[in-house]
Design brief:
heterodimer; A: 229 residues; mainly alpha; 0% strand; B: 197 residues; alpha/beta; Rossmann fold; Arc Repressor Mutant, subunit A; 5-stranded parallel sheet; 5 strands
Chain lengths: 229, 197
């Protein structure tokens, strides 16, 4: 097993092969595959991204329970982290959720109309809740975080008010998984059910990391900045 | 007299941890530690005189796992507890007088060993229990959008009883939200579309 510490001098190809979830970070940060022997530093600089920020986020994805130290956070660019969160929202709403929707839609085609209807309605409600949650973050939380980071005044809000509404979104996602795994009528399209579950687990995993970045990295930093002003 | 424990476990960290758990009480004595069963003769195993054998299921290949206890019973009358580090199928679990997992607390481990010694088996909780008739009634109310208070009044039970039923429904079905329970009720023909709309 390799024990060389990860740094911005690590080759990008090596970092990516560490854990495939890092691929999502690469993709959303707009880094282009075909890294050759280039290091994290070189690839990020070329794309105009702070290498420390990229490394920090990649580590959150690759290592369960990883949290950056305050020194690491100081080297990173918090604005880039906010940008990353927004890119993730776009990825969820524009890529994963539509894929999930299309899998679910095909999954229920062989089912009875009333079954189709109830499953589809449940998914639509979940989708709407998810969009509302993202909209709240995009319109209220993240602009506030950016304002604090740029030391701008005008507070109608403090980060402490950032309510924990992640849990509800998570519960519906869990329910959707249970409903497919335990209660789907047998005549449903099995391949599409598998696909739907695959997207659900992918989304769940990614949202979990996303929440860690928000709640355990950004919120404490902003909280400290608030109390220093 | 203390009960003699034999640990068959390849991981030094786990055996050290188990020894620690048992050392604090005086009720148990670890009489032997083996990494696996290779090179161990019948007489050797017999002479250890273990009352309980803790054996890591992972040292056996998949096909021979259901026969672990039968294999050990050739050498020993000890109660056998499986150490589980991964999901294990039912045929394997059934044979043991108890099982312990790596996340079990010291008290849980002690309790399980005691109960294995008393010849009682800790049957794992059945996860796929059917809903009772009352739970189905309450689920139907929940799916129709009724509040706890309304359900309590309808069946003349306390709100706390309703909450307990709802907790059990969620535990049994694996579904937490009202919307999810409605889908469940419909897929299981407990309600029809007209009742929800």
């Amino acid at each position: 097993m390799r024990t060389i510490p990860l740094s911005t001098a690590t080759k990008m190809a090596d970092l990516v092969s560490l854990d495939f979830s890092v691929l999502g970070v690469v993709n959303r940060m707009g880094l282009n595959f075909g890294f050759g022997e280039a290091t994290v530093e070189e690839v990020c600089r070329e794309a105009g991204i702070n290498p420390e920020t990229f490394l920090l986020i990649a580590k959150v994805y690759a290592f369960e329970g990883y949290l950056p130290t305050s020194e690491t956070l100081q080297r990173a660019n918090l604005h880039d982290i906010v940008k990353y969160l927004k890119m993730s929202h776009r990825y969820y709403t524009e890529v994963i959720v539509p894929e999930l929707a299309s899998a679910l839609e095909s999954m229920i085609i062989p089912c009875e109309p009333r079954q189709q209807k109830v499953i589809w309605t449940f998914f639509q409600d979940y989708k709407e809740e998810l969009s509302k949650h993202f909209a709240y973050e995009e319109n209220t939380v993240l602009p506030y975080v950016e304002a604090v980071l740029s030391h701008q005044g005008g507070r109608q809000f403090t980060i402490g008010e950032y309510e924990e509404n992640h849990s509800n979104v998570q519960e519906k996602l869990d329910d959707l998984k249970s409903l497919i795994i335990k209660y789907m009528p047998h005549q449903c399209n099995q391949q599409e059910a598998y696909k739907a579950l695959f997207y659900l687990y992918t989304l769940e995993d990614d949202l979990r990391k996303h929440t860690i970045i928000e709640d355990q990295i950004l919120v404490p930093v902003v909280g400290r900045m608030e109390s220093h002003e | 007299m203390s009960n003699r424990i034999l640990i068959i476990e390849p991981s030094a960290i786990i055996t050290k941890g188990l020894e620690q758990v048992f050392s604090d009480l005086g009720e148990f004595e670890v009489c032997g530690i083996l990494q696996d069963l290779s090179g161990i003769g019948e007489s050797q195993l017999r002479s250890m005189g273990a009352d309980v054998i803790l054996v890591d299921v992972g040292i056996f290949d998949y096909a021979s796992r259901p026969g672990i206890k039968a294999h050990l019973a050739d050498f020993s009358e000890a109660a056998v507890i499986g150490i589980l580090q991964q999901m294990t199928d039912e045929d394997t679990l059934r044979q043991f007088d108890g099982t312990i997992g790596l996340m079990d607390s010291p008290t849980t481990i002690i309790r399980k060993v005691r109960s294995a010694l008393e010849g009682r088996t800790d049957t794992p909780r059945e996860e796929t229990e059917e809903l009772s008739a009352r739970e189905k009634e309450i689920l139907i109310c929940v799916a129709k959008g009724m509040l706890n208070k309304e359900i309590a009044d309808l069946y003349n039970i306390s709100i706390y009883t309703v909450i307990t039923h709802r907790k059990n429904i969620t535990r049994k079905t694996g579904i937490k939200t009202v919307a999810g329970l409605t889908v469940y009720a419909l897929l299981n023909n407990l309600i029809d579309m007209n009742t929800v709309e």
